[in-house]
């Protein structure tokens, strides 16, 4: 689906909400609708905004650093290059775009929102573009399959390079090199590489902790291919004999994951599916050691809609991509998480 087609779908949502325009400040949403992406790597810096109007007159705003890049994706008549007083330029465009203007308050600082609304009200309007992004089109699905294929290849390669004395940081760097040398543009997120007790930290940061025999290893890794992310977690044992705690924990996590995967199909409530994993842990008396949600959407962002937990609202729907990642964590001892991502199809699911 072209970016122009996506903008037309958004216009339909604007009409449903009786909005004249929507100011897009979320970088991933901007890319989804325009193809223009330059990473906003600094919290206090932006490479641009989109204004999508119900009338069809759309604008891409950016500064002179990105003018040539923007021209590759956007027609000249709708391209606005701001220099000084870009807020005043943006305010004028919004004033010319209609009476009811929505904006993405979740991706805008409070200071910017106050400035933009000083002269006229704007309506906080989050989730409209994300609603479109929930259901992946054919091109998105192909990009995701390529991203996950590379992730699988890396995870098959890793056990062969593990050796005693290798640190978490060293392994993290080897993983990043593999991704980049085999077609990824970058990491989807900083790799989580955790040995032994560090695996009890769900978002452990790779350290100088060395790998020793008879140790649990947790890898939560992802790459970006054709702009789309992969996200997978594997937990396994390095050594000849698994500890009893690791083996029991791994088997319970695998059972919880299977309980969900075996039941996943379109139209089933996300919350009800999440309860199946929760019930496995409850019956085993370890529910308190499952400290996060069951999963999340994956696409342009590593974490996007839908949220997948026992409090989720809404059902699984065709076109969604969602992780299933139960885990159990025992501080100071070990942690195990197993994660796959599934594509929801018309008649079931496909594990990516």
TrEMBL record:
The record ties this protein, via Pfam families, to:
Creatinase_N, Peptidase_M24
Q: Where is the Peptidase M24 domain?
A: 142-346
Domain Creatinase N-terminal, chain residue ranges per copy: 6-134
Q: Which domain of life is it from?
A: Bacteria
Gene3D superfamilies given in the database record: Creatinase/methionine aminopeptidase superfamily (3.90.230.10), Creatinase/prolidase N-terminal domain (3.40.350.10)
- PANTHER family in the record, alphabetically? AMINOPEPTIDASE, AMINOPEPTIDASE YPDF
Give the protein's recorded name. Xaa-Pro peptidase family protein
Q: State the organism of origin.
A: Candidatus Desulfovibrio intestinipullorum
């Amino acid at each position: 689906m072209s970016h122009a087609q996506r903008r037309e779908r958004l216009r339909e949502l604007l009409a449903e909400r009786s909005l004249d325009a929507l100011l897009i400040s979320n970088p991933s949403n901007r890319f989804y609708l325009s193809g223009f992406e330059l990473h906003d790597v600094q919290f206090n810096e932006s490479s641009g905004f989109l204004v999508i109007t119900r009338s069809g007159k759309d604008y891409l705003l950016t500064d002179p650093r990105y003018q040539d890049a923007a021209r590759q994706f956007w027609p000249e008549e709708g391209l606005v290059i701001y220099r000084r007083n870009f807020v005043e330029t943006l305010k004028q465009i919004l004033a010319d775009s209609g009476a009811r203007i929505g904006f993405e308050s979740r991706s805008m600082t409070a200071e910017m929102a106050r400035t933009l609304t000083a002269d006229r009200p704007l309506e906080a309007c989050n989730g409209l573009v994300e609603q479109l992004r929930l259901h992946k089109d054919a091109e998105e699905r192909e990009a995701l399959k390529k991203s996950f294929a590379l992730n699988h290849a890396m995870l098959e390669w890793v056990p062969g390079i593990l050796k005693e004395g290798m640190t978490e940081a060293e392994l993290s760097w080897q993983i990043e090199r593999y991704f980049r040398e085999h077609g990824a543009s970058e990491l989807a997120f900083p790799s989580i590489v955790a040995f032994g007790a560090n695996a009890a930290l769900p978002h452990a940061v790779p350290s100088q902790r060395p790998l020793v025999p008879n140790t649990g290893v947790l890898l939560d890794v992802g790459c970006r291919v054709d702009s789309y992310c992969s996200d997978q977690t594997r937990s396994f044992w390095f050594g000849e004999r698994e500890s009893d705690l690791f083996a029991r924990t791994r088997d319970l996590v695998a059972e919880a994951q299977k309980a969900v995967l075996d039941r996943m199909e379109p139209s089933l409530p996300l919350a009800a599916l999440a309860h199946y994993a929760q019930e496995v842990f409850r019956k085993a008396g370890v529910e308190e050691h499952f400290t996060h949600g069951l999963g999340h959407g994956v696409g342009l962002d590593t974490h996007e809609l839908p949220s997948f937990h026992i409090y989720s609202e809404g059902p699984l729907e065709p076109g969604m991509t969602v992780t299933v990642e139960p885990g159990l964590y025992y501080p100071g001892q070990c942690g195990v998480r197993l994660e796959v991502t599934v594509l929801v199809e018309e008649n079931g699911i496909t594990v990516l």
